[in-house]
C-alpha cells in the first residue's frame, strides 16, 4: 500500500518539528531576552492549548470534515507556523505559535485514525504492506536519533526552525500527492453532540415537571447500544427525556434536539460526574509543565561535557520524552 509511506512521512516531519518546539524556552530567553517568568508563561500556554484543543478538533472531525481534511489543513498550518518562527521577529511570533498549535493538535487528532482507516481497507494486511510499514517505522526511529544528535549543533535559530519547516512542507506535499489513493470515510457524528443535545432538550422543557415514575421517561429499547438504568442524581437533566403530552411520540422522535433517551441522559450525567476528577489533573499539569520550562532552562546552562564526550542537551530531552512513554 503506497499510501502508508505518504502518511508516515508526516510523522517524520513531526519528530523534527516537535524537538524544535521543545527548546522554545531556550529560544525565548536567549534570542528574545525574555525573563524566565514571561517565557515560561508563553510556553505553558502553548502546551496547555495543545493538550485541550484536540477535544474541539475531534468534535469537528467527527461531525464536519473527517480525518483527511483535518490532517491536510493542519499540516499546511504546521509548515506555515514553523516558517514564521524562522523569521525570528516579534510581529509574527503570535501567528507562529498559533498556527503551530493548530498543526500539532490536528496531527494528534487525525494522524492515528487516518492511518487506521488506510490499514483496515480489506480487513487484512498483506505481506508487502507489513514490510513497508515496518521499514517506515524503522526510518522514523533513525530520523529521531539523527535529529536528536544534529539539531543541537546548529547554531542559527532560524536554521533550527527552518529545517523542520522545510521537512514539514515537503512531507505535506507528499501526503497531498496521494489524495486520490486514500480511503475516505464520512463523519459518523460525535459523542459530544449527545452531550449538547441533552442540555438543549432539558432546557427547552424547563417548565415541565419530571414524572415521579421514571418508567414514563422516554427510552428506545431498539438501540444497539446497551441501555443505562436511571439514576436519581442530576434529575434536572431528566427533563430531556420527558414525553410532552401535547404532541404525539412520533412527532417528538423526529426532533432529536427536543427528546433524548434515558440512556443518553445517563451518559451525560456520567460525564458531568467525572468533571471533579478531571479538575484534579490540573496539579499534574503544573508539575509536568516544569519539563518544558525549568528543565529546559537548566539544560541550557549546564556543563554538557561528560569526560571528553560532549552530550547535546536535547539528548536529555529525548530521554525525558521516552521516560514519559
From TrEMBL:
Keyword Secreted: no
GO cellular component terms, A-Z: membrane
UniProt family annotation: Belongs to the major facilitator superfamily. Proton-dependent oligopeptide transporter (POT/PTR) (TC 2.A.17) family.
Main location: membrane
Protein's name in the database: Protein NRT1/PTR FAMILY 5.5
Protein species of origin: Forsythia ovata
InterPro entries linked: MFS_trans_sf, POT_fam
Membrane topology of the entry: Multi-pass membrane protein
PANTHER family: OLIGOPEPTIDE TRANSPORTER-RELATED
Superkingdom of the source species: Eukaryota
Membrane-spanning intervals of the chain: 6-28, 40-61, 67-85, 133-154, 161-185, 277-296
Compartment list: Membrane
UniProt entry keywords in alphabetical sequence: Membrane, Transmembrane, Transmembrane helix
Amino acid at each position: 500500500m503506497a499510501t502508508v509511506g505518504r502518511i508516515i512521512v508526516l510523522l517524520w516531519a513531526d519528530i523534527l518539528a516537535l524537538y524544535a518546539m521543545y527548546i522554545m524556552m531556550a529560544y525565548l530567553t536567549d534570542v528574545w531576552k525574555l525573563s524566565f517568568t514571561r517565557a515560561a508563561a508563553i510556553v505553558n500556554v502553548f502546551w496547555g492549548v495543545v493538550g485541550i484543543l484536540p477535544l474541539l478538533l475531534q468534535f469537528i472531525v467527527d461531525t464536519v470534515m473527517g480525518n483527511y481534511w483535518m490532517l491536510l489543513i493542519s499540516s499546511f498550518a504546521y509548515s506555515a507556523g514553523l516558517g514564521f518562527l524562522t523569521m525570528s521577529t516579534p510581529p509574527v511570533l503570535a501567528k507562529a505559535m498559533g498556527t503551530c498549535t493548530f498543526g500539532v493538535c490536528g496531527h494528534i487528532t487525525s494522524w492515528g485514525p487516518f492511518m487506521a482507516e488506510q490499514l483496515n481497507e480489506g480487513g487484512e494486511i498483506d505481506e508487502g504492506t507489513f514490510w513497508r510499514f515496518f521499514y517506515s517505522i524503522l526510518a522514523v526511529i533513525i530520523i529521531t536519533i539523527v535529529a536528536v544528535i544534529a539539531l543541537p549543533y546548529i547554531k542559527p535559530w532560524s536554521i533550527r526552525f527552518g529545517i523542520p519547516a522545510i521537512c514539514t512542507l515537503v512531507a505535506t506535499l507528499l501526503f497531498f500527492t496521494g489524495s486520490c489513493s486514500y480511503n475516505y470515510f464520512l463523519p459518523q457524528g460525535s459523542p459530544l453532540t449527545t452531550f449538547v443535545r441533552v442540555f438543549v432538550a432539558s432546557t427547552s422543557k424547563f417548565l415541565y415537571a419530571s414524572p415521579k415514575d421514571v418508567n414514563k421517561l422516554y427510552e428506545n429499547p431498539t438501540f444497539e447500544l446497551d441501555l443505562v438504568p436511571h439514576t436519581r442524581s442530576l434529575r434536572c437533566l431528566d427533563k430531556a427525556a420527558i414525553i410532552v403530552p401535547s404532541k404525539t411520540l412520533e412527532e417528538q422522535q423526529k426532533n432529536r434536539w427536543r427528546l433524548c433517551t434515558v440512556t443518553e441522559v445517563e451518559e451525560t450525567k456520567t460525564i458531568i460526574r467525572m468533571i471533579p476528577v478531571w479538575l484534579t489533573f490540573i496539579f499534574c499539569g503544573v508539575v509536568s509543565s516544569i519539563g518544558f520550562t525549568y528543565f529546559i532552562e537548566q539544560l541550557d546552562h549546564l556543563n554538557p561535557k561528560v569526560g571528553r564526550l560532549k552530550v547535546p542537551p536535547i539528548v536529555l530531552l529525548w530521554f525525558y520524552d521516552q521516560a514519559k512513554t
